[in-house]
Each structure stands twice: as C-alpha cells, then as structure tokens.
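Extended Data, panel c. Modelled sequence:
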Amino acid sequence: MAEKILQELPEREPQKKYIVKFEDVQHFLDKDLPLDLLGPNSKNVFKRFNIPEIFLKVQPEKWHELEEYQKGKSILNSIKVVNDTAERGVKLMQEYNDKFTTNEDQKQFVLQVVQDCRKQYPGFTRDTLKKPYT
C-alpha cells in the first residue's frame, strides 16, 4: 500500500468512485483494502494533517518504532468522522420534507422560516428561548 501511495501522479488519472450499499458495508469492511482504492492522491491526507510521509519508505514492521508514524497515528486516531452523521441528518430532513409537503415553494418557505428562527434564537438556553420573536 505504501508503494502505491508513493507513486508519482500520472497525468489525468481517471477518478474511481465506489458506491457501497448500506447492507454491504460490513462485508466491505471485513475485506482487505483493495489497492485500486489507493493512489498518488492518497498522499493528500498526509499533507492535509502535516504528517511526515518518510515512514512509508521503511518496512511496515518497523513503523511502530518511528516517531513520524506515531505522530500520524495519533493525529488520525483523534479525528472524528462526521460525514455519516451529516448524511443521516440530510436524509432525515429530506424524509421530513417529503412527508410535510410536496410543494417546492412551501418547502423553501419552511426552510427560510427555520433559518430566520435560528438567527433570532441562536442558542437553546431558557433565557434565549424566552425572548420575544421579532
């Protein structure tokens, strides 16, 4: 995997997109990571989080001894993945909207009212909610 990540980026490498159905996620997670998911663009995670890539040139059995690897592992372990939560929120909103009304104008109006309400009441404290709506 390290060799695949360290490869030079060819010109216009085609983008691959994998779509995994929810019911297939566990099967996908139980398998080894397919090497075609990795490529030179995979280096971006190292750049994004300022993780030295030097350990990728060393045999993986020795990574645990290297400070660069320990630093990267610590950084990546501390990152909370929020995409799943955000997608659930979007899906819930879409389902609510579909049941609430099928009229697109009404949906937009509701979203504007909610947005306005959030500006008027930015917090959820009792004092904030006691303020009169203007």
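DSSP finds seven helices and no strands in the chain. This feature is highlighted in the accompanying rendering.
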